[in-house]
Amino acid sequence: MGEILDSLSNAKIMELAQDIRVLIAAGILLVLAIVFRWKTVLLLLVGFGGTITVIRYTNIKEGAAIDANLGYFALGTTLIFVILIYLMFIRSD
Fold it and tell me: What integer pLDDT is reported at residue 28 of this predicted model?
């Protein structure tokens, strides 16, 4: 267990998001969450996937200067947050 935590603490999120094993595990988890109707897990996956998509779209890198991409990043993450709040609290099943 300690080795897993050490590797996760040293890993970079964008590198993990491109790893095929992580993508397969996320896909399996997504299918299980849909089949068993695990709303919290689905919202977590949508939020994480949306945030990774916004980061890739705005092309934010470590040490990058603040420019117009920061506005796109802020707007995208705010939109993801609003969608998650809507799905979690406002929309009723």
Answer: 93
